[in-house]
């Protein structure tokens, strides 16, 4: 099976070299490494070319979804492995994940576990777990990390690829479409290290909320339209769990704009509207208490 690595890049000169080094250090070598420039104004593309990557361009800053789609369409590989330009793979990442596709033709997606870049690494060697249908679990929470994922190119194209121009939760939208009525594999340990820094889109969590629930609503509509064997009750239960998690995040951050964004997302699910309104009312009554708790956590962090 031919493997292509697709990496979107926007002004990533600080981290790109290390990311690409981790690709070229793989124990199972990829057949192609594609870096898609998304309107960078630094020397990222000079770094990419110097390290031997194929460089493509979006033409203007269009977001990672558009950049990845360009890389996917350019390649003729069987499998596409994704890595963001500020993350790194452990050396055995591809060696662990690729057999998932060789063993089972029904597997369309495989992903490794992720470890924070700044946490100590472990010597545990990741192993592939048996494939399973994760669609309902995925509806509840996005467990698939972009930089740790490999997918069949044919399945990506059949699913419509990433939503062009979408900058938040674009990966989640694709994972839900790929996971529908198919098999997905994962590992028991980390194969990728994720870097966190202030420039990341993924740090702007409030902006992900509406798009993520929009992807859920679309996925449920697709599943019901196709007559797939997921009950409406089970899918709604998964969405309820997702809302509970997001309301919990809003409370932890004592962010009322976060609550309002969750309420906007709740409008996509008429059957949940009453529950959402009741939750908002309860939170409003207790909000001063949550603000105080948040301030105390902040003070504790400063003092330690």
Task: Walk me through what this model shows.
This protein has helices spanning 16-24, 44-50, 64-74, 93-97, 99-103, 135-140, 153-158, 170-179, 209-226, 232-253, 256-266, 273-303; strands spanning 3-9, 32-37, 54-57, 79-82, 88-89, 107-116, 149-152, 183-194. It has 304 residues and is α/β, with parallel strands linked by helices. It has 2 domains: 3-203, Alpha-Beta Complex (Spore Coat Polysaccharide Biosynthesis Protein SpsA, Chain A), CATH 3.90.550.10; 205-303, no CATH class. It has an 8-stranded mixed β-sheet, sandwiched between helices. Helix 8 (170-179) runs parallel beside helix 9, helix 9 (209-226) packs antiparallel against helix 10 and helix 9 packs parallel to helix 11 (256-266). The longest helix is centred in the C-terminal third of the chain and has 31 residues, at 273-303. The radius of gyration is 20 Å and the shape is globular. 42% of the residues are buried.
Which helices and strands, and how do they pair?
Blueprint: E1 3-9, H1 16-24, E2 32-37, H2 44-50, E3 54-57, H3 64-74, E4 79-82, E5 88-89, H4 93-97, H5 99-103, E6 107-116, H6 135-140, E7 149-152, H7 153-158, H8 170-179, E8 183-194, H9 209-226, H10 232-253, H11 256-266, H12 273-303
Helix pairs in contact: 8-9, 9-10, 9-11, 10-11, 10-12
Outline:
With 304 residues, the chain is α/β, with parallel strands linked by helices.
């Amino acid at each position: 099976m031919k493997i292509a690595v697709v990496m979107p890049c926007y002004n990533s000169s600080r981290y790109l070299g290390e990311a690409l080094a981790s690709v070229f250090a793989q124990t199972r070598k990829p057949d192609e490494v594609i870096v898609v420039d998304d309107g960078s104004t630094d020397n990222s593309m000079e770094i990419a070319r110097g390290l031997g990557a194929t460089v493509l361009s979006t033409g203007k800053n269009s977001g990672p979804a558009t950049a990845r789609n360009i890389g996917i369409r350019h390649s003729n590989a069987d499998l596409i492995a994704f890595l963001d330009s500020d993350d790194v793979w452990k050396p055995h990442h591809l060696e662990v994940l690729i057999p998932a596709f060789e063993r089972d033709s029904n597997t369309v997606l495989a992903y490794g576990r992720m470890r924070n870049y700044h946490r100590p690494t472990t010597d545990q060697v990741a192993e592939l777990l048996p494939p399973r249908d994760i669609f309902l679990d995925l509806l509840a929470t996005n467990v698939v990390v972009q930089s740790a994922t490999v997918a069949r190119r044919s399945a990506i194209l059949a699913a419509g690829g990433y939503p062009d121009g979408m900058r938040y939760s674009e990966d989640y939208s694709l994972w839900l479409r790929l996971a529908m009525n198919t098999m997905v594999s994962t590992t028991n340990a980390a194969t990728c290290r994720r870097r966190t820094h202030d420039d990341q889109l993924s740090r702007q969590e409030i902006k992900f909320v509406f798009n993520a629930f929009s992807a859920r609503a679309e996925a449920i509509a697709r599943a019901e339209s196709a007559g797939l064997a997921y009950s409406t009750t089970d899918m709604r239960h998964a969405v309820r769990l997702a809302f509970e998690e997001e309301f919990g995040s809003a409370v932890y951050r004592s962010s009322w704009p976060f609550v309002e964004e969750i309420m906007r997302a709740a409008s996509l699910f008429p059957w949940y509207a009453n529950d959402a309104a009741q939750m908002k009312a309860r939170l409003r009554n207790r909000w001063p208490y949550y603000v105080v708790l948040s301030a105390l956590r902040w003070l504790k962090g400063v003092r330690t």
